[in-house]
Amino acid sequence: MQVNNNYQPTFRAGKITNSGLKVLSNRLPSGQFQKFVDRFVQRHKGSDYQITLGAGVNIKNRLDAMIDYGNKNFRYIEEGILSSLLTSPKRFMNKINRQIDKDVLSIAERGYLI
After folding, report:
1. Gap between the terminal Cα atoms of the chain
2. How many CB atoms lie within 10 A of CB 76?
3. Distance (Å, whole) CA 2 – CA 100
4. pLDDT, tens only, 18-70
């Protein structure tokens, strides 16, 4: 007897665009660059959302993130100009992680983002 399993879980993940990798490589020391990328991918692996980290559209060396929660729920976050000049990308990732926690809670309680 053959059993067909058509169930495919929707595991989402984090990805970094080529332009995002370029910005990160410019702003992080070489030893921290690979740690940052590995930690980013590991943190968002198998999550209920998909996050894409890229480079800001208007100003170079500025990061942005698109977070897709599905069902027409998404958020776009862009790093500030001063933050991109004065702080590490790690601070931007902390901001994103806090926002994801708030968004997931909002979707669980209300069914949409606030």
Report:
1. 50
2. 8
3. 42
4. 999 999 999 998 889 999 999 999 999 888 899 999 997 767 789 999 999 98
Burial class (CB in 10 A: 0-12, 13-18, 19+), 38: exposed
The residues, ordered by sequence, that sit 6+ positions from 21 with a Cβ below 8 Å of its Cβ are: 37
Long-range contacts from 33-38, C-beta under 8 angstroms, 24+ separation: 36/89, 36/90, 36/93
Check if the beta carbon of residue 17 is closer than 8 Å to that of residue 63. Answer: no
Token duo for residue 55? 């480079």
Token pair recorded at residue 67: 């977070």
Give the phi and the psi of residue 38 in degrees, each rounded to 5.
-65, -45
Within a 10 A sphere around the Cβ of 91, how many other Cβ atoms? 12
H or E element: which one contains 76?
A: strand 73-78
Residue 8 CA to residue 20 CA, distance in Å, equals 30
- Torsion, Cα of 106, 107, 111, 114 (10° steps): 40
